[in-house]
Write a structure and sequence with these properties.
alpha/beta, Rossmann fold, seven-stranded mixed beta sheet, two-stranded antiparallel ribbon
């Protein structure tokens, strides 16, 4: 299909597995179940290739930064690997470039810390993992931190809370671009029920 709109999911060393794979499951299911919607999802990493995640899983990034297709949506996951990214000038510059080129930036967990370090959340509402909301405020005191929200949609930026909250955010993306019926179909298809088991 021509004219596909792309969703890129960023990978990096020590990315939290579910931060990336949770949104992938939702968004890839959506793309396959509703191909006429015209969306495709891919993974990318700075150099492409194998990325070692926080708990030891290896994931192969489908693209490098150099050969990744232009994205309409970018998902920046979190995890231990975000800590060095907060002071990685090259990565922060790349994130700022994405802000200029990508209509919708999203983050999961501590991915929002990277956005804050890059200056992309100034004066905006945002959230992060419960254990890092104070750090989010320290990185940029102008951020309106929302510690109790599963995700925060501020138009061209969506941030989500920790780890499994990325699934909620991804379902919200489906609802936003494909409608509530498609989001319900995806939610049922992946049998996601956020009610706690205990």
């Amino acid at each position: 299909m021509t004219g596909m709109r792309n969703i890129g999911i960023l990978l990096f060393e020590n990315v939290e597995e579910l931060d990336a794979v949770g949104p992938w499951e939702v968004l890839a299911y959506w793309c396959k179940r509703f191909p006429d919607a015209g969306w495709a999802v891919h993974t990318l990493a700075r150099d492409g290739g194998v990325v070692r995640c926080a708990k030891g899983m290896d994931i192969v990034a489908q693209h490098s930064f150099a050969d990744a297709p232009p994205s309409e949506i970018l998902v920046h996951p979190g995890g231990r690997g975000t800590r060095p990214l907060l002071t990685d000038d090259d990565h922060l510059a790349w994130v700022r470039e994405r802000r200029a080129a990508v209509p919708l930036l999203t983050s999961v967990c501590t991915g929002s810390l990277v956005y804050a370090a890059a200056g992309l959340l100034s004066g905006r509402p945002a959230t992060s993992h419960w254990s890092t909301v104070d750090q989010l405020a320290e990185l940029d005191p102008t951020v309106e931190v929302r510690p109790d929200d599963r995700f925060v949609d501020d138009g061209d930026v969506i941030t989500s809370a920790g780890i499994s909250a990325g699934i909620d955010m991804a379902l919200h993306i489906v609802a936003r671009f494909g409608g509530a019926d498609q989001a319900r179909t995806v939610r049922r298809g992946i049998q996601y029920d956020p009610l706690p088991p205990v």
